[in-house]
Amino acid sequence: MDSPWRDFNSEKGFGQAVNLSKTSQLLKAKVPRHVAIIMDGNGRWAKSRLRPRIWGHQQGVTSVRETVKACGELGVAYLTLYAFSDENWSRPAAEVRGLLQLLDSFVAKEGQNLDDQGVRLRVIGDVARIPERTRESLSMLCNRLQNNNRLHLTLALSYGSRGEIVRACSKLAHQVEQGKLRAEDIRIEHVAQYLDTTDLPDPDLLIRTSGERRISNFLLWQLAYAELWFTDVHWPDFRRAHLQAALDDYASRRRRFGLTDEQIQALT
Ligand code: IPE
Ligand code: IPE
Ligand code: MG
Q1: Which one of 9, 33, 166, 203 is least enclosed by Cβ atoms within 10 Å?
Q2: Residues assigned a catalytic role
Q3: Tens-place pLDDT, residues 209-221
Q4: Does the beta carbon of 16 lie inside 6 Å of ligand 2?
């Protein structure tokens, strides 16, 4: 995982120092390298138009298409979209079914478009819960797009950050059980390596639509130093101009990573 920190061997072994050269790179980049989005508000958007919730989800696909395209054009390298949470499995069965059908149709229809835009696709989350047929077609699409590298698109499906962290802990415990790692040698990098996001840099910017100001179990570990941007716009109305507003705001922020203003000045 690409993080601005490096281990340093403090007496207890848990110390972390800020890696100044990586921090300097992050500070100089005015476009966030990794944008993560909680695409929220589909249901309310539909309800306010006297339509069923699933219609809101369907209309949200246009926003996904537009956001992917704009990110590619604006120089964002990684885009992670929260599409379905662990907790969303508890919604009414008809809505869950509708969302899975929407995912099937996205996978069936969007391949060529994504390929043409140089998009690579990954999936994070507890994918074992996703029906096998959907999982297989997703996996085929990921394989088809695996050599693209203009935009790294990640779909968080059946995703919950607490579950992800527990899965990582369990894998680490196995390593210790098998004598491959000593408990006292566990570092931040070890945990990060077993998270679903192992190949991805931490998000620089988190966007949440629909006026809610919470994280809802999304990337709890990875968002440690992300800038947060909220909008009242519901996801089906989210367009390039909203993304641009978020990126402009990001460019005006002053990230510090725990350092002082003077240190930051010296690094930029
Ligand atoms: C986000 O929209 C999409 C998913 C969670 C799948 P919602 O369905 O949460 O819409 P609201 O928040 O109820 O309006
Ligand atoms: C978060 O939205 C999950 C996704 C966008 C996929 P929710 O609508 O499920 O979150 P809460 O319930 O409002 O916190
Ligand atoms: Mg919601």
Answers
A1: 9
A2: 40, 88
A3: 999 999 999 999 9
A4: no
